[in-house]
Amino acid sequence: MKKLLFFLGAVCFAALSCTKEKTDYEGITDTVPPGHTVFKEAATIHSGGYDISIEALNGAFYKGYNEIRVKITNSATSVTAEVAGITFLPINTGAGGVTGSCPHQYELAYKPDSNYYSGYSVFTSESDADGNWALDIGFTHDNQTFTAKLPITVQEQPNKNLNMTAFTGKDDEQYIITLVAPLRPKVAENKLIAGIYRLNGTDPSRLAYTEAGGYTLLLDPRMPEPSMGNHSSPNNVDLTQQSDGLYHGVVNYTMTGNWTLNFIMLNADGRIVKGTEVPMDFTPGVEGVKSELYIDVLF
Q1: Residue 289 per-residue DSSP state
Q2: Over the stretch 228-238, which tens digit does the pLDDT of each residue have?
Q3: Largest CA distance in the chain
Q4: How far apart are CA 248 and CA 121, in angstroms?
Q5: How far apart are CA 103 and CA 216, in angstroms?
Q6: What tens digit of pLDDT does each residue of 131-177 get?
Q7: What's the total number of domains in the chain?
Q8: Paired sense of beta strands 61-62 and 154-155, if any
């Protein structure tokens, strides 16, 4: 009942505050590329008589979660090569030549209906003067093993609904949470999907991160702008892991604007790994308090 009264009061205040001067949300969200839901070639390399094409949304690699599609064709015939065991390894080379990787799917899965190999990569930084990215691709054809390496550019993520965060939990483990969907939220109940990854120090190159299984993300979305009073919304569903390895829940956006997804991350025993409860106080004119674990979004 307390949460319902909090929400109803917030809605009334939000309606009255719409005439106040606020951030130009439409101007910001319009920067999201119109083709951000279309897969295009982001990189290609010719090696050993084969053309290797890597596709990503909008034909670019962005900081955060990227679905990856790989196609391999015979350079001479342009016919799809029947290869096996495609491996995919993102490598970051930082200052002083120090290398590492990021959360990714090392062994890609073949999609026979679409004739490509599918995986993902969670790039943890953008390409800049302090670090660059490359992809190592390996595959087998006619009992021969082929490898290719190509440099790529990782850009800033223009879609603020795909932000990510990295942190150290109370268990002293290092984690990454990255948003996967929705790409374009609506003023409605939206399916919210996120990936959770834990650093694996046993192999700092190929298996730098592994999918973190068995956790729960308690969700409390708020509008932290002073004009919004840090109000929440009803009918949100906490995120739990599904068969695809990702965490699924529901977030209810009651209006467009700046939202904060406040989380409390629980392990399989129900113990808090990271995160704090957000006060239920309605705070018009004051910037809202955030959880110890959160991700900001904007649509």
Answers
A1: P
A2: 999 999 999 99
A3: 69
A4: 19
A5: 19
A6: 899 999 999 988 889 999 999 999 999 999 999 999 999 999 999 99
A7: 2
A8: parallel
